[in-house]
Amino acid sequence: MTLPVTTDDMHLLVSLAERPEPIEVMLRRALDSFQTVVLFDLAVIFELDGADLKVHTAAGPLADQRVRRHRLLLERFPTIARVLETRRPVALRDHHHTSEGDPFDDLLALPHGHACMVVPLYAGDRTLGAMTFDRRVCEPYPPAVVELAGVFGQLLAVTMLHAEQSALLLRHRGILQELARTQQRESERGLDTPAHFANLRSPEMQRLVRQAQLVAETPVPVLVQGETGVGKELLARAIHAWSPRRDEAFVAVNCAAIPEALLESELFGHVRGAFTGANAARAGRFVTAGGGTLFLDEIGDLPLAAQSKLLRVLQEGTFEPVGSDRPVKVDVRIIAATHVDLEQAVADGRFREDLYFRLAVFPLHLPPLRERMEDLGQIAHDILVAIARRSGRGPWTLTPDALEALAREQWPGNVRQLHNALERATILVAHGPLDARAVLPEARGRRQVKTADEPLETLEAVERRHIVKVLSRCQGRLYGERGAAKVLGMKPTTLQSRMLKLGITRSDVPG
Question: What own/partner pairs with CB < 8 Å and gap ≥ 24 does 42-45 have?
Answer without folding.
Answer: 42/67, 42/104, 42/108, 42/132, 42/133, 42/134, 42/135, 43/131, 43/132, 43/133, 43/134, 44/70, 44/131, 44/132, 45/121, 45/129, 45/131, 45/156
